[in-house]
Amino acid sequence: MGNIIETKKISKKYNGFLAVDSIDLNVPKNSVYGVLGPNGAGKTTLISMLCTILRPTSGMAIVNGYDIVKQAKEVRASIGIVFQSRALDDILTGREHLEMHASLYGVPRDIRQERLDEVLELIALGKKADEYVKTYSGGMKRRLEIGRGLIHHPKVLFLDEPTLGLDPQTRENIWDYISHLNQTSDITVLLTTHYMEEADKLCDEIAIINQGKIITSDSPRNLKKELKADTITIKVDYPDDFVEKVKELNFIKDAFLIDGEVKLMVESGENLIPAVVEFASNEGFPVKSVELEHPNLEDVFIKFTGSKISSEGK
Ligand code: ATP
Protein backbone atom coordinates (compact mmCIF):
# COMPACT_ATOMS: atom_id res chain seq x y z
CA MET A 1 0.00 0.00 0.00
CA GLY A 2 2.88 2.36 0.77
CA ASN A 3 3.11 5.72 2.42
CA ILE A 4 1.48 8.79 0.97
CA ILE A 5 3.42 11.09 3.28
CA GLU A 6 7.02 10.61 4.34
CA THR A 7 9.22 13.07 6.14
CA LYS A 8 12.94 12.73 6.79
CA LYS A 9 14.36 14.64 9.72
CA ILE A 10 12.10 17.58 9.04
CA SER A 11 12.70 20.57 11.33
CA LYS A 12 11.41 24.10 11.75
CA LYS A 13 13.11 26.83 13.72
CA TYR A 14 11.46 30.13 14.61
CA ASN A 15 14.20 32.62 15.53
CA GLY A 16 16.36 29.90 17.00
CA PHE A 17 13.47 28.08 18.72
CA LEU A 18 13.11 24.53 17.43
CA ALA A 19 9.33 24.03 17.08
CA VAL A 20 9.67 20.82 15.01
CA ASP A 21 12.77 18.79 15.72
CA SER A 22 13.95 16.19 13.21
CA ILE A 23 10.67 14.39 12.67
CA ASP A 24 10.40 11.19 10.62
CA LEU A 25 6.75 10.62 9.83
CA ASN A 26 5.30 7.82 7.69
CA VAL A 27 1.63 8.04 6.86
CA PRO A 28 0.16 4.97 5.11
CA LYS A 29 -2.05 5.57 2.10
CA ASN A 30 -5.80 5.56 2.82
CA SER A 31 -5.35 5.78 6.58
CA VAL A 32 -6.71 8.23 9.10
CA TYR A 33 -3.50 9.35 10.76
CA GLY A 34 -3.41 11.46 13.89
CA VAL A 35 -0.69 13.77 15.17
CA LEU A 36 -1.48 13.97 18.85
CA GLY A 37 0.16 16.32 21.33
CA PRO A 38 -0.41 19.15 23.77
CA ASN A 39 -0.76 22.78 22.72
CA GLY A 40 2.55 24.08 21.49
CA ALA A 41 3.94 20.62 20.66
CA GLY A 42 4.53 21.62 17.05
CA LYS A 43 1.53 19.98 15.37
CA THR A 44 0.38 23.00 13.36
CA THR A 45 3.94 23.82 12.36
CA LEU A 46 4.48 20.24 11.15
CA ILE A 47 1.39 20.09 8.98
CA SER A 48 1.87 23.66 7.74
CA MET A 49 5.16 22.46 6.26
CA LEU A 50 3.45 19.44 4.68
CA CYS A 51 0.83 21.78 3.19
CA THR A 52 3.62 24.01 1.76
CA ILE A 53 2.49 26.97 3.89
CA LEU A 54 5.78 26.98 5.79
CA ARG A 55 9.21 26.09 4.50
CA PRO A 56 11.21 23.63 6.59
CA THR A 57 14.48 24.86 8.10
CA SER A 58 16.03 21.46 7.32
CA GLY A 59 15.03 17.95 6.35
CA MET A 60 12.56 17.01 3.64
CA ALA A 61 9.10 15.62 3.00
CA ILE A 62 7.23 13.89 0.21
CA VAL A 63 3.45 14.24 -0.12
CA ASN A 64 1.66 12.14 -2.75
CA GLY A 65 5.01 11.51 -4.44
CA TYR A 66 6.00 15.20 -4.59
CA ASP A 67 8.69 17.09 -2.74
CA ILE A 68 7.10 19.79 -0.58
CA VAL A 69 9.75 22.40 -1.47
CA LYS A 70 10.71 21.56 -5.04
CA GLN A 71 7.21 20.55 -6.20
CA ALA A 72 5.05 22.72 -4.00
CA LYS A 73 2.52 23.34 -6.77
CA GLU A 74 1.93 19.63 -7.34
CA VAL A 75 1.67 19.09 -3.58
CA ARG A 76 -0.94 21.84 -3.34
CA ALA A 77 -3.03 20.28 -6.09
CA SER A 78 -2.94 16.95 -4.21
CA ILE A 79 -4.19 18.19 -0.87
CA GLY A 80 -7.19 19.69 0.85
CA ILE A 81 -6.69 21.87 3.89
CA VAL A 82 -9.04 22.59 6.78
CA PHE A 83 -7.25 24.71 9.35
CA GLN A 84 -8.33 26.14 12.68
CA SER A 85 -10.47 29.26 12.61
CA ARG A 86 -10.76 29.71 8.90
CA ALA A 87 -13.71 32.03 8.82
CA LEU A 88 -16.59 31.35 6.48
CA ASP A 89 -18.40 34.21 4.88
CA ASP A 90 -21.81 34.60 6.51
CA ILE A 91 -23.35 36.38 3.55
CA LEU A 92 -22.75 33.48 1.19
CA THR A 93 -24.76 30.26 1.04
CA GLY A 94 -23.10 26.89 1.51
CA ARG A 95 -23.34 26.19 -2.20
CA GLU A 96 -21.80 29.56 -3.11
CA HIS A 97 -18.88 28.81 -0.83
CA LEU A 98 -18.22 25.52 -2.52
CA GLU A 99 -18.63 27.08 -5.98
CA MET A 100 -16.10 29.73 -5.16
CA HIS A 101 -13.64 27.16 -3.94
CA ALA A 102 -14.20 24.90 -6.94
CA SER A 103 -13.36 27.74 -9.29
CA LEU A 104 -10.36 28.74 -7.16
CA TYR A 105 -9.02 25.20 -7.38
CA GLY A 106 -9.67 24.96 -11.10
CA VAL A 107 -12.39 22.30 -11.05
CA PRO A 108 -13.53 22.33 -14.73
CA ARG A 109 -16.78 24.22 -15.24
CA ASP A 110 -18.60 21.34 -16.93
CA ILE A 111 -18.20 19.00 -13.95
CA ARG A 112 -18.57 21.66 -11.25
CA GLN A 113 -22.28 21.16 -10.58
CA GLU A 114 -21.90 17.43 -10.32
CA ARG A 115 -18.95 17.87 -7.95
CA LEU A 116 -20.88 20.31 -5.77
CA ASP A 117 -23.80 17.91 -5.44
CA GLU A 118 -21.46 15.05 -4.63
CA VAL A 119 -19.69 16.99 -1.89
CA LEU A 120 -22.92 18.42 -0.48
CA GLU A 121 -24.24 14.91 -0.13
CA LEU A 122 -21.05 13.68 1.49
CA ILE A 123 -21.14 16.41 4.11
CA ALA A 124 -24.93 16.04 4.44
CA LEU A 125 -25.67 19.68 3.73
CA GLY A 126 -27.86 19.15 0.67
CA LYS A 127 -30.98 20.57 2.29
CA LYS A 128 -29.26 23.64 3.68
CA ALA A 129 -27.08 24.27 0.64
CA ASP A 130 -28.99 27.35 -0.51
CA GLU A 131 -29.30 29.00 2.89
CA TYR A 132 -26.92 31.59 4.26
CA VAL A 133 -24.00 30.28 6.31
CA LYS A 134 -25.01 32.55 9.18
CA THR A 135 -27.98 30.22 9.78
CA TYR A 136 -25.72 27.16 10.15
CA SER A 137 -24.85 25.47 13.44
CA GLY A 138 -21.20 25.02 14.51
CA GLY A 139 -21.17 21.44 13.24
CA MET A 140 -22.67 22.41 9.88
CA LYS A 141 -20.07 25.13 9.43
CA ARG A 142 -17.30 22.67 10.18
CA ARG A 143 -18.78 20.19 7.70
CA LEU A 144 -18.89 22.93 5.07
CA GLU A 145 -15.22 23.72 5.75
CA ILE A 146 -14.39 20.04 5.31
CA GLY A 147 -16.47 19.98 2.11
CA ARG A 148 -14.54 22.96 0.83
CA GLY A 149 -11.32 21.05 1.37
CA LEU A 150 -12.68 18.15 -0.67
CA ILE A 151 -14.03 19.92 -3.72
CA HIS A 152 -11.00 19.27 -5.96
CA HIS A 153 -10.76 15.55 -5.01
CA PRO A 154 -7.54 15.77 -3.04
CA LYS A 155 -5.53 12.65 -2.22
CA VAL A 156 -4.76 13.91 1.28
CA LEU A 157 -7.00 15.95 3.53
CA PHE A 158 -5.25 17.90 6.29
CA LEU A 159 -7.43 18.73 9.27
CA ASP A 160 -5.95 20.90 11.99
CA GLU A 161 -7.88 20.28 15.21
CA PRO A 162 -11.09 19.38 13.34
CA THR A 163 -13.37 19.44 16.37
CA LEU A 164 -11.81 22.22 18.44
CA GLY A 165 -14.51 24.18 20.21
CA LEU A 166 -17.39 21.89 19.21
CA ASP A 167 -19.76 20.30 21.72
CA PRO A 168 -19.41 16.53 22.35
CA GLN A 169 -22.39 15.57 20.19
CA THR A 170 -21.23 17.60 17.20
CA ARG A 171 -17.73 16.28 17.72
CA GLU A 172 -18.97 12.71 17.39
CA ASN A 173 -20.88 13.63 14.24
CA ILE A 174 -17.73 15.08 12.71
CA TRP A 175 -15.84 11.88 13.62
CA ASP A 176 -18.52 9.88 11.83
CA TYR A 177 -18.16 12.06 8.74
CA ILE A 178 -14.41 11.74 8.68
CA SER A 179 -14.60 7.93 9.04
CA HIS A 180 -17.30 7.73 6.38
CA LEU A 181 -15.24 9.86 4.05
CA ASN A 182 -12.17 7.72 4.56
CA GLN A 183 -14.12 4.50 4.00
CA THR A 184 -16.00 5.61 0.92
CA SER A 185 -13.17 7.30 -0.96
CA ASP A 186 -9.46 6.71 -1.41
CA ILE A 187 -8.54 9.76 0.61
CA THR A 188 -5.91 9.80 3.36
CA VAL A 189 -6.73 12.00 6.32
CA LEU A 190 -3.99 13.57 8.41
CA LEU A 191 -5.34 15.34 11.44
CA THR A 192 -3.86 17.06 14.44
CA THR A 193 -5.53 16.93 17.78
CA HIS A 194 -4.93 17.34 21.46
CA TYR A 195 -8.04 15.28 22.26
CA MET A 196 -7.01 11.76 23.22
CA GLU A 197 -10.49 10.43 22.59
CA GLU A 198 -10.46 11.83 19.07
CA ALA A 199 -7.16 10.14 18.27
CA ASP A 200 -8.33 6.90 19.86
CA LYS A 201 -11.69 6.66 18.11
CA LEU A 202 -10.80 7.99 14.72
CA CYS A 203 -7.22 7.16 13.86
CA ASP A 204 -5.74 3.98 12.43
CA GLU A 205 -2.33 5.19 13.51
CA ILE A 206 -1.03 8.06 15.55
CA ALA A 207 2.23 9.82 16.26
CA ILE A 208 2.41 11.37 19.69
CA ILE A 209 4.50 14.51 19.63
CA ASN A 210 5.86 16.64 22.41
CA GLN A 211 8.24 19.59 22.26
CA GLY A 212 8.71 19.15 18.54
CA LYS A 213 9.65 15.47 18.63
CA ILE A 214 7.78 12.23 17.95
CA ILE A 215 7.85 10.33 21.19
CA THR A 216 6.14 7.23 19.84
CA SER A 217 3.92 6.09 16.98
CA ASP A 218 1.69 3.08 16.32
CA SER A 219 -2.00 2.17 16.28
CA PRO A 220 -3.84 3.42 19.39
CA ARG A 221 -4.56 -0.20 20.25
CA ASN A 222 -0.92 -1.28 20.19
CA LEU A 223 0.22 1.77 22.10
CA LYS A 224 -2.20 0.98 24.90
CA LYS A 225 -1.45 -2.72 24.82
CA GLU A 226 2.30 -2.22 25.06
CA LEU A 227 1.83 -0.12 28.12
CA LYS A 228 0.80 -3.13 30.21
CA ALA A 229 -0.26 -0.70 32.84
CA ASP A 230 -3.37 0.07 34.76
CA THR A 231 -3.48 3.34 36.62
CA ILE A 232 -4.56 3.56 40.23
CA THR A 233 -5.45 7.13 41.11
CA ILE A 234 -5.38 7.68 44.82
CA LYS A 235 -6.24 10.74 46.86
CA VAL A 236 -4.47 10.88 50.20
CA ASP A 237 -3.40 13.44 52.76
CA TYR A 238 0.21 14.58 52.13
CA PRO A 239 0.36 13.40 48.48
CA ASP A 240 3.86 14.88 47.98
CA ASP A 241 5.27 12.53 50.60
CA PHE A 242 3.10 9.62 49.60
CA VAL A 243 4.23 9.65 45.98
CA GLU A 244 7.79 9.00 47.19
CA LYS A 245 6.91 6.55 49.94
CA VAL A 246 4.67 4.36 47.78
CA LYS A 247 7.59 3.55 45.49
CA GLU A 248 8.75 1.18 48.25
CA LEU A 249 6.06 -1.24 47.09
CA ASN A 250 7.84 -3.44 44.59
CA PHE A 251 4.84 -3.86 42.27
CA ILE A 252 4.58 -0.11 41.62
CA LYS A 253 6.14 0.44 38.21
CA ASP A 254 5.96 4.22 38.45
CA ALA A 255 4.31 6.92 40.54
CA PHE A 256 3.43 10.51 39.59
CA LEU A 257 1.83 13.42 41.36
CA ILE A 258 -0.64 15.14 39.05
CA ASP A 259 -3.05 17.86 40.18
CA GLY A 260 -2.73 16.78 43.81
CA GLU A 261 -3.57 13.15 43.01
CA VAL A 262 -1.13 10.28 43.06
CA LYS A 263 -1.12 8.12 39.93
CA LEU A 264 0.33 4.66 40.31
CA MET A 265 1.24 2.56 37.30
CA VAL A 266 0.79 -1.13 37.98
CA GLU A 267 0.39 -4.20 35.81
CA SER A 268 -2.94 -5.41 37.11
CA GLY A 269 -4.86 -2.86 39.13
CA GLU A 270 -7.77 -4.94 40.42
CA ASN A 271 -5.53 -7.27 42.39
CA LEU A 272 -3.32 -4.58 43.85
CA ILE A 273 -5.70 -1.91 45.16
CA PRO A 274 -6.18 -3.57 48.56
CA ALA A 275 -2.44 -3.74 49.14
CA VAL A 276 -1.99 -0.06 48.20
CA VAL A 277 -4.79 1.08 50.50
CA GLU A 278 -3.44 -0.97 53.37
CA PHE A 279 0.07 0.36 52.83
CA ALA A 280 -1.18 3.96 52.77
CA SER A 281 -3.14 3.55 56.01
CA ASN A 282 -0.26 1.79 57.77
CA GLU A 283 2.20 4.51 56.76
CA GLY A 284 -0.05 7.33 58.00
CA PHE A 285 -1.61 8.58 54.75
CA PRO A 286 -5.40 8.47 55.19
CA VAL A 287 -6.99 7.47 51.86
CA LYS A 288 -9.82 9.70 50.59
CA SER A 289 -10.59 7.92 47.34
CA VAL A 290 -9.24 5.31 44.95
CA GLU A 291 -10.01 4.84 41.28
CA LEU A 292 -8.85 2.31 38.74
CA GLU A 293 -8.41 3.00 35.05
CA HIS A 294 -7.26 0.80 32.24
CA PRO A 295 -4.71 2.42 29.97
CA ASN A 296 -5.71 5.11 27.53
CA LEU A 297 -3.66 7.36 25.29
CA GLU A 298 -3.25 9.87 28.11
CA ASP A 299 -1.37 7.19 30.02
CA VAL A 300 0.82 6.51 27.03
CA PHE A 301 1.67 10.21 27.01
CA ILE A 302 2.28 10.29 30.76
CA LYS A 303 4.59 7.31 30.48
CA PHE A 304 6.76 9.06 27.93
CA THR A 305 6.71 12.59 29.32
CA GLY A 306 5.63 12.43 32.97
CA SER A 307 2.98 15.07 32.32
CA LYS A 308 -0.61 15.23 31.12
CA ILE A 309 -1.42 16.01 27.53
CA SER A 310 -4.27 18.28 28.51
CA SER A 311 -2.38 20.20 31.20
CA GLU A 312 -1.89 23.13 28.84
CA GLY A 313 -5.32 22.62 27.31
CA LYS A 314 -7.22 25.48 25.76
P1 ATP B 1 -1.50 24.61 19.06
O1 ATP B 1 -2.53 23.55 19.01
O2 ATP B 1 -1.54 25.43 20.30
O3 ATP B 1 -1.39 25.43 17.81
P2 ATP B 1 0.72 23.10 18.14
O4 ATP B 1 1.12 21.76 18.65
O5 ATP B 1 0.03 23.14 16.85
O6 ATP B 1 -0.13 23.83 19.23
P3 ATP B 1 2.53 24.99 17.02
O7 ATP B 1 1.46 25.98 16.74
O8 ATP B 1 3.11 24.26 15.88
O9 ATP B 1 2.04 23.93 18.11
O10 ATP B 1 3.69 25.72 17.82
C1 ATP B 1 4.86 25.05 18.25
C2 ATP B 1 5.74 26.03 18.99
O11 ATP B 1 6.27 27.00 18.10
C3 ATP B 1 5.03 26.80 20.08
O12 ATP B 1 5.92 26.92 21.17
C4 ATP B 1 4.75 28.14 19.46
O13 ATP B 1 4.74 29.14 20.44
C5 ATP B 1 5.91 28.31 18.51
N1 ATP B 1 5.54 29.07 17.31
C6 ATP B 1 4.54 28.79 16.45
N2 ATP B 1 4.48 29.67 15.45
C7 ATP B 1 5.48 30.57 15.66
C8 ATP B 1 5.95 31.73 14.97
N3 ATP B 1 5.40 32.14 13.83
N4 ATP B 1 7.01 32.39 15.51
C9 ATP B 1 7.60 31.97 16.63
N5 ATP B 1 7.20 30.87 17.34
C10 ATP B 1 6.16 30.18 16.87
Give a nutshell description of this structure.
With 314 residues, the chain is α/β, with parallel strands linked by helices. The chain has eleven helices and 15 strands.
Describe this structure in words.
- The protein has helices at 43-50, 72-78, 94-104, 109-122, 138-150, 168-184, 196-202, 220-227, 239-245, 269-282, 297-305, and strands at residues 3-14, 17-23, 26-28, 32-36, 58-63, 66-67, 79-82, 156-160, 188-193, 205-210, 213-218, 230-236, 254-258, 261-266, 287-293.
- The chain is of the alpha/beta class.
- It folds into two domains: 3-224, Rossmann fold (3-Layer(aba) Sandwich); 230-294, 2-Layer Sandwich (Alpha-Beta Plaits), CATH 3.30.70.100.
- The mean pLDDT is 90.
- Adenosine-5'-triphosphate (ATP) binds at residues 14, 17, 19, 37, 39-45.
